[in-house]
Amino acid sequence: MTVLGGIGFTAPWLLIALAALPILWLILRAVPPAPIRRRFPGVALLLGLKDDESVSDRTPWWLLLLRMLAVAAIILGLAGPVLNPQEDQAQGTGPLLIVLDGTWAGATRWAEQMQAVEAQLARAARANRTVAVLALTRPEEPLFQAADVWRSRLAGFTPAPWQPSPADVARATAIVDQMAGFDTLWFSDALDYEGRDEMLETLQAQGDVEVYQTAANVLAISPATYADSVINLQVARAAPGPAREVTIQAEGRDPAGNARILATANGSFAEGETLGTAELSLPAEMRGRITGFVIAGQRSAGAVTLVDDALRRREVALIGGRGDREALQLLSPLHYIEQALAPTADLIDGSIADVLPANPDVIVLADIATLSEAEAAPLTEWIENGGMLVRFAGPRIAASDVSRIDEDPLMPVRLRAGGRSVGGAMSWGEPKSLAPFRDTSPFFGLPVPDDVTVTAQVVAQPDPTLADRVIASLSDGTPLVTRKTVGQGQIVLFHVTATAEWSTLPLSGLFVQMMERLAVSSAAAQPDAGDLSGTTWTPLRIMDGYGTLSDAGTLPGVDGADLVSAPAGPALRPGIYANADRRLARNVFTADSRLIPASWPADVPLRGLAVPPEQPVAGWLLSLSILLLLADVVASLALSGRLLGRRGTTVIGALVLAICLPHGPADAQSAEADAFALAATVEVSLAHVITGDAEVDEIAAAGLQGLSDVLFFRTSVEPAPPTAVNLETDELAFFPILYWPITPNQPRPSAEAYSKLNTYLRSGGMILFDTRDADIAGLSGTSQNGRKLQDLAALLDIPPLEPLPADHVLTRTFYLLQDFPGRYNSRDVWVEASPPDAEQIEGMPFRNLNDGVTPVVIGGNDWAAAWAVRSDGAPLLPIGRGYAGERQRELANRFGVNLIMHVLTGNYKSDQVHVPALLDRLGQ
């Protein structure tokens, strides 16, 4: 391609013909126009006469200019002009290989990358170059085909939720090494990986290599950890830069089982740093409902970290020794433990044999000294598999021989006989206070109150390992709490009682915090390959390159060792895996992962993705030349006086027909409009407003289809398939109701669209506004969707509104209802306010509201999500849990039926003729 004046030409040699235009001007200037012929009998007198001087008339200059422009347009069009030519990119002639990293790191800007690939394919098609595509995450033998063939396949390329493994890159390098004679365009995701340099050298040996790479920094988030009562989050970026903040969203399920954003936190990058941190403090109940954390504004698997059992609400089994005063609640050995753990854990009571099958996270033994072999063996096995045993001392342990000479397997340390008493009438010294917690202790950071003192304890025997096992001590250095690791689990001993007999610790808030930290730390540490060797984990949910979870379907299980150590790939997809009753999250970006930016040699051209696509304009120029030539024909006919003759009329008719041909699309649009009107009026059709958000629009369409199915099976209404309505172009009068879901980013309609909407409302139509936010802000507009609703409705002719009254006809048009749930269950639904003079007539259960239909209904229960069905008729989205959720879906369907019947029939159920039937049903 040759570039002249910023415009490229695929056949620049044709521009030489422009030099002939002056010669053509002179020729056309010398040739006179055709004479005008008239029948005149007197001309016979002139026959035989000769004129010695002959002067010919000339063609008008403007007609010559018109012809010159037509010829110039033809020449320029045939020369193949292209706007936005890539001047700095060499135009090859041989085969072209397009290499895609195709990883999660490019998912956020995948659409932009595919547009750049399509532009290069279009360029290759104009140069008649064959093209092959090689994705490094799924390397296969490339097949060189026409560029247009690959353009039709681009939609099938999606980012993978893993990076190319060394084996993948080695295979791709071997494939390329066996090929010969091609240039390469490498679309990089801006991250380095093993084998990339060798791959580049192999490609450079075959031909020219150019790299396309986004300038945006790649972001990722590490798995969440919990310590010191807060969730710790770490975010990473590939390249250092200025100070920056990112928003991290905690996603999970609300109490109704619906997916929502439960909390947000801000992660901060310091200037020049590649790692940032964020902290999030949440109640235990909410923490247990979190399913993952997402970096806002990023759409990639690396910007999502899934949560397994690490943050869920713990199950704690409490087992206490029997005492003479057990019936007194405050003296019960488990009373203070129950009070400390009840807000943050699920408590289980019973014997060891009873609680072990439930596989709790923690088992607490309060002053139980001796365990039988039938109890000790399964308890030890449970600890080795990741359980935590918390033991409290007491008179029985102090008086027993447990762990005296040899360390008991279920004790963290050896104990001295008899215990220790301080601060009593028969002892020396004052009661001992607690020492600050060391940084290696799970209690580190907790403040130590001055009023917590210890008067008695069991004392640990000195031992070389004792110092490493102490996690809390008294001010004199005596161990207060000791711990040891057994397999994947832990054994913890409090050297005081769980009651206030030996210390004031159980009476303090510190005791609550210590027990909560132990319950949380009961989760086994991230297992290594050895711990999981020989186990098989079944995938439950898998993640794609965009970070979206889906059902794993029939994917096979994976070996436990591979789950934690093998790199992610087609055989090991990121997601949630299960083994028995335990779940493990395999994330894309792990705690050991690092983002290394890709660097390229100086001799490799590096370009960005934001390249304007080349735009061929040959067709426009050739079309312009045709129009100019047609104008020349009309002008020539006019100058010769034959424009209005019989032949002229025929020519003009042909020209008019030719000019009208380009208006075919308008005729097609008219036909489409007729078909649209016919489809909307043959049967009742429910319609939803197109918001521009593809996911919301799909759910709206599926919801109206589900409601249409319910109407078909339960009523005499047989709706046609639902219709998506464009407020700017479509006629609204065909639809009795418009479902309008509110999204924060949908554009505001034009003035013409508002005019149509107001006409629609005044002529009896209804709009159901759904903010889809559970109406958490009512109509105050404090939520994003609420503010958008106020903005959209500002120019609509909406009457005064009121919360839907209990006697409104919507509560009884088909079903008797008092609640109107959707995916959410908020009672607040707004309708047109009742007339001020509407009064309840004596003997009637409702007011006389017999005129009109409310033009708008406003709520936030996300009704379409509750109505939505798949193509097989099954529900599309989960609603609540179990029977309560299905009951909520049924009530949502009933509200939909009432709504449509109200639109179609008005307030006829307010007529007095229906009073006996309604009273009978109300009585039931």
Model description:
- This protein is of the alpha/beta class and 924 residues long.
- It is built from 24 helices and 41 strands.
- Strands 9, 10, 11, 12, 13, 14, 15 and 16 form an eight-stranded antiparallel sheet that branches.
- β10 and β11 form a beta hairpin.
- α1 packs antiparallel against α2, α5 packs parallel to α6 and α8 (335-341) crosses α13 (509-520).
What structural category arises from helix and sheet content?
Answer: alpha/beta
What distance lies between the first and last C-alpha atoms, to the nearest angstrom? 84 Å
Shape: flat
Low-confidence stretches: 323-328, 424-428, 663-668
Average of per-residue pLDDT values: 82
Report the strand count. 41
Q: Using only CA atoms, what is the Rg?
A: 40 Å
Kindly estimate the percentage of residues that lie in beta strands according to DSSP.
15-25%
* Number of helical regions: 24
Question: Helicity, in percent?
Answer: 25-40%
Largest beta-sheet details:
8 strands, antiparallel
